[in-house]
Amino acid sequence: MDKRTIELDVREDINNKLEPFQKIMEAIGELKVNDVLVLHAPFKPVPLYGVLKAKGFEHEVEKIEAKHYKITFTKTGGK
Predict the structure, then answer these.
(1) What does the alpha-carbon distance between residue 5 and residue 51 come to, in Å, rounded to a whole number?
(2) What is the pTM of this model?
């Protein structure tokens, strides 16, 4: 079965002072093992790492530019 990848850019939400947590939780809701969420954010969302780790995700961070981080969350466990 092919892995599914969802790409989500929350930089504009954060710049507009909107909280993207619910949008992120909705995006990962359907993901299964080996599926991927690619998140674009203006900073490293460190608190999110622990939340998603508890849901079975591992992450890798790549700094694209000063206010652009690409975080790749891969579901490795959980439901």
Answers:
(1) 19
(2) 0.93
